[in-house]
Design brief:
With 104 residues, the chain is α+β, with helices and mostly antiparallel strands. The protein has one domain: 2-Layer Sandwich (Double Stranded RNA Binding Domain), CATH 3.30.160.880. 69% of the residues lie in helices and 13% in strands. Strands 1-2 form a two-stranded antiparallel ribbon. It is elongated. The protein starts with a strand and ends with a helix.
């Protein structure tokens, strides 16, 4: 297991140091950039609201997107599983019918 090393990320012009293993640095930087982007989008809507509220709204928006993505993935996995099972049944049926013909 790797030891944690601090990584500097910037969100809304504020720097944060977050410790994480070296192999996770790229994902941490990408995550912080996404949070920064969402917070900037909310901030740019023109309403003068505090950073705490901006952060909460960004968290809610990102969580909503994550849940939508998860739901879409689960639906796709279910559809794929169903198709694979139908194909498996067809192959088994074809093999069984082929064996029946050989026995006759």
């Amino acid at each position: 297991m790797s030891s944690s090393i601090p990584v500097s990320v910037t969100v809304l012009q504020k720097e944060y140091k977050i410790a994480c293993p070296p192999e996770e640095h790229a994902a941490l930087i990408e995550s912080a950039a996404l949070v920064d982007q969402k917070m900037r989008e909310i901030q740019s809507q023109g309403k003068s609201i505090g950073q705490d509220r901006i952060a909460i709204m960004a968290a809610i928006n990102l969580t909503y997107e994550l849940l939508q993505s998860k739901s879409t993935r689960e639906q796709a996995e279910s559809l794929l599983s169903s198709r694979v099972n139908r194909l498996k049944d067809r192959v088994e049926s074809a093999l069984f019918n082929g064996r029946q013909l050989e026995l006759e």
